[in-house]
Amino acid sequence: METSPGATQHPPVSVVLAVRNEQRSLLDAVSNVLAQDYDGALEVVIAVGPSTDETARIATDLTKRDSRVRTVANPTGRTPAGLNAAIAAARHDVIARVDGHAMLPPHYIRVAVELLVTTGADNVGGVMAPEGSGPFQQAVARAMCSPIGVGSTPFRTSAPAGPASSVYLGVFRRAALERVGGYDESYLRGQDWELNHRIRKTGGLVYFSPELKVVYHPRADMRSFARQYFHTGRWRRAIMRQHRETVTLRYLAPPAMVVAVGAGTLGAVAGRPAGLALPGGYLACIVAASLATGRGLPAAARLRLPLVYATMHGAWGLGFLTSPVRLAAAAVPVNCAEVT
Predict the structure, then answer these.
(1) Structure pTM?
(2) N or C: which end of the chain has fewer CB within 10 A?
(3) Is the dihedral of CA 328, 332, 337, 338 positive or negative?
(4) Residue 160 gets which letter from DSSP?
(5) pLDDT for position 339
(6) Residue 322: Cβ within 10 Å count
(7) Which long-range contacts (CB under 8 A, 24 or more apart) does 195-202 make?
(8) Which of 216, 201, 154, 186 is nearest to 25 (CA)?
(9) What would the pLDDT profile of 150-194 be if each residue is shown by its tens digit?
């Protein structure tokens, strides 16, 4: 795809999804893609993993309803493997990655492609915009777009447009994906961040725009939310083992908090009351942060916000600290052009 200002603004786009157990949202997600305000040709390639619901039937029905939709098999059910399979089957040179539960705004592909052309980027993406329907989910949504919860990540905190380390979803040049070997199929979590790191490492530009805002519905219960952040922490450490240059204080803060709070608590139990200063100080900081960031939330959601922040930090930090070496041992990029 050309990058000059006079280049076509509407090249054909392949939209790829890797889905599993997405019966509640797949139809709406694909319908939003097909209804995009975009003058170029669109196709949708759905990699269907083993599901315990009606996802496969819905995907098949979509292919019968619209000739622009095709499916490919994803026997492992792993997201990066499914994305690689869908990319290999895609026909076009612009690849848009979409989740089965992501609802694209009507202008998403048009704006992303225009930014690919004008910036020369290899990948363009935007904001993960969490929305909650109940008190717990509302608290999680607020925490997920606050620097207290996720640090300074642009695609979560809606920073100004510009180069970024990673973005939510992404609209890619196929040439960039083939240059770096596609998604690393050994990563069950963090594969987007890891892919974008390799794109940047090979000289490519990853570009963030707050115009590209996609609604995301976070986990609705504490157990699944804690599990999500625990595994995210585990896989973040795996990425850091493979790419040691990505180590930052932001990623080390949650495990350091877990160690400090745990040590202080154990010290207090062992008869050293001064140890309570560590967990007490952390609790005071979390409560203060919740008061500052919870403005505008319903009272029930504000009450849950300190627990949500503590769960994010604690689960992520514990996952990081217990991450086994084997998670990164098999991390080898896979060439998406060779996946069949």
Answers:
(1) 0.81
(2) C
(3) negative
(4) P
(5) 36
(6) 13
(7) 196/123, 196/165, 196/166, 196/167, 196/170, 197/165, 197/166, 197/239, 197/243, 197/246, 198/333, 199/122, 199/123, 200/165, 201/243
(8) 216
(9) 665 655 556 789 999 899 999 999 999 999 999 999 888 888 989
From CA 200, how far away is CA 180, in angstroms rounded?
Answer: 10
SS3 170: strand
> What was the pLDDT predicted at 5?
36
- The arrangement of strands across the sheet holding 123-130 comes to 69-73, 42-48, 13-19, 94-97, 168-173, 123-130, 206-216, 162-163
Cα 124 to the center of its chain, rounded Å: 14
**From CA 97, how far away is CA 93, in angstroms rounded?**
13
**Alpha carbon separation from 259 to 129, 186, 275, 313 (Å, rounded):** 31, 28, 12, 12
- At 79, the amino acid letter reads T
- The H or E element spanning position 209 is strand 206-216
* Pairwise CA distance, residues 56 & 306, whole Å: 40
Tokens describing residue 334: 């896979």
Query: CA–CA separation, 165 vs 176, rounded Å?
Result: 15
**pLDDT at residue 287, as a whole number:** 95
| Contact in structure between 46 and 56 (CB atoms under 8 Å) | no
Pick out the chain residues at pLDDT < 50: 4-7, 330-340
User: In this predicted model, what pLDDT tens digit does every residue of 181-232 receive, in sequence order?
Assistant: 999 998 888 889 899 999 999 999 999 999 999 988 888 899 999 999 999 8
Residue-wise DSSP of 108-149: HHHHHHHHHHHH--SEEEEEEEE--SSHHHHHHHHHHTSHHH
Please report the pLDDT score of residue 329 as a whole number. Answer: 52
C-alpha closest to that of 41 among 59, 71, 68, 65: 68
